[in-house]
Amino acid sequence: MRKLFIAALLLSLLVHAFALFGIDYGMFGEPPESVPLKAELRALPPLPVPEPSPPPRPKPPVEPIPAPAPVPPVDTAAGLAAMPARDDAAANDALATAVADEAVSPPRPPAVEPVLSGSGRLAFVVVKESLGMQIGRALHQWDFPGDGSYRLSSMIETSGLVALLKPLRQEHESFGRLVAHGLQPEGFRILRNGKPRGDNADFDWATGEVRLERDGSVLKIAPGTQDLLSLIYQLAYLRSPENGSTIGVVAGRSYERYQLDSLGEEEIETPAGRFRTLHLRAAGETLTEIWIALDRQRLPVKIRFTDKKGDSYTQLATTLDISGTGPEMPSGKP
């Protein structure tokens, strides 16, 4: 009996070890790290000896410039007398009005009514589909304070025995404003295992650009561009998501144009209940599929990330807390 128990334990460890080393950052929905470049020093070929240049040609003689004709004197008094009288008071009033107009900044557009008002939370389990087992958990939180701004945060981490063998925790944060077309991110932040990764992004909508922290590059972006987290909640603001569209997405270290396709309505079962959903697929460097609940403010109740290797990680909703009274973000300890 003891040998059978030990054999079962070893088998369980092998299965979890396989899951451990098979886990990639695709479970976070991010594109894979770029392959590091290798440098090799080689001797350069000798430089060619330049041919002697021909002697310069003699310059032609410079002809003298004729002196300008004399200018007749100007009667300054007569010129001033011919000028019309100036109304100093009117000129000062016009100047003051122009300065005042330039000093007034354009009014900020009125805040858009959020689909999700106040704050709330969504909890998920994370399943690696090739193993058919739970390997982690995730939590999303949102805050729409009513002043036209928004803040989204998400946490995803390994759990159980997988967390003991390979602890991974990643946090995303997106903040910005609500505009006519929905969410307009101003900043995107990433932490991995509690530390910055250098993959933050800052949006400048006055110039239509985004600055990537990793390499300092500044890229032009299309109107309506989202970050990796705001994309999930921007779907609630699309007028006709069932017709598909193209959306720019900033993933921290890259900017891509995602083709958003609709795969139709589906009824799905999750630990949080049964939902009538619209199945959407965003194809970029990685593949993201999102099922939004049509009867629950288009909340994402199922999310699947598929990396370049074909491994899929699915998040299934376990709790929907629209009132914002549920548990806070966990501490990150396994």
Taken as a percent bin, the fraction of beta residues is: 35-45%
Shape: globular
What portion of residues is helical? 10-25%
How many runs of DSSP E, i.e. beta strands?
A: 16
Structural class: alpha+beta
Descriptors for this entry?
16-stranded mixed β-sheet; alpha+beta; disordered C terminus; 5 helices; 334 residues; globular; outer membrane lipoprotein receptor (LolB), chain A
Can you offer a commentary on this structure?
With 334 residues, this protein is of the alpha+beta class. The protein has a domain of 204 residues: outer membrane lipoprotein receptor (LolB), chain A, CATH 2.50.20. The chain has five helices and 16 strands. The chain has a 16-stranded mixed beta sheet that branches. β5 and β6 form a beta hairpin. The longest helix has 21 residues. The radius of gyration is 32 Å and the shape is globular. The two termini are 31 Å apart. 28% of the residues are buried. The C terminus is likely disordered.
Topology at a glance:
Blueprint: H1 2-22, H2 76-82, H3 88-103, E1 118-128, E2 133-144, E3 149-158, H4 160-165, E4 169-179, E5 182-192, E6 195-196, E7 201-204, E8 209-212, E9 218-220, E10 226-227, H5 230-234, E11 245-250, E12 255-270, E13 273-283, E14 287-293, E15 299-306, E16 312-321
Parallel strand pairs: 10-11
Antiparallel strand pairs: 1-2, 1-16, 2-3, 3-4, 4-5, 5-6, 5-7, 7-8, 8-9, 11-12, 12-13, 13-14, 14-15, 15-16
